Model the fold of this input.
Amino acid sequence: MTAKSLCPPATPTPPDRPSLEPGNASSPRFRKASQVIADALRHEISAGVIADGDLLPPEGDLIERFGVSRPTLREAIRILETEGLLTTTRGGNKGHRIHHPTAYQAARQASLALRLRGATIMDVFVLASILVPPAVRMVAEMKPQPDLGELHRLYELMVEHRDHPQELARLIRRFDVAVCALCGNAAISFVSQMMAEIIELQIGEIPSDLAGLPPENIAEMGPARKRFGDMLAALTAGDGEKAEELMQQRLRDMIRSHTRLVTRNAPIQLIE
Done:
């Protein structure tokens, strides 16, 4: 099928049918028909026209809609599959099922991109120290106050696991994700989930019990736990300024303690 037959220049493009005119193949703006179709379907997924869990319309309907061959349509579908936006199933419920991107998928791509740019795990910790404290303040100053039950439950688990550094680190990550989810900012919430996925791989290097920790880390755990409790109390009382300040201090404590456990320039581990 030629470019002219895909979209004759004299025929206006209907609103629901994007132009598939690829243009001059030697031009930097040249786009294959499959890429244009993938763009159109990706836009509909992002706009909620095709919901998470839905099946794409049958291939025959899409071929008629876009005016392309089956191989061209399937190439567009493969593009979306590689992006994790859909999976192809066979059997009783065969078809192409839509999946909204998860924080894990985004973190998998981000971990590779960050590693290629020379970012270290400490860079991610510094990002957390920039992102999480303002989120704590936002939650503290919300009117009406959101349900803080999950934050209190996680803190109680932290106290319970105070002698198990690795599990304690996981609970702190979960607390950060939970407080960011409450702040009302979707971007902060999603990025915090991505950071948690990346940091999770590094948590495996933390000893599972106190015997494996440097003495300095053990000495700092009590005061750090008290600051964490004071931060949660300030958050609950609606004192955003104090809660933010205490969270910043807690994250500085975390960075300092981790420098004794991991090499400062250790590369980010890839999420498989």
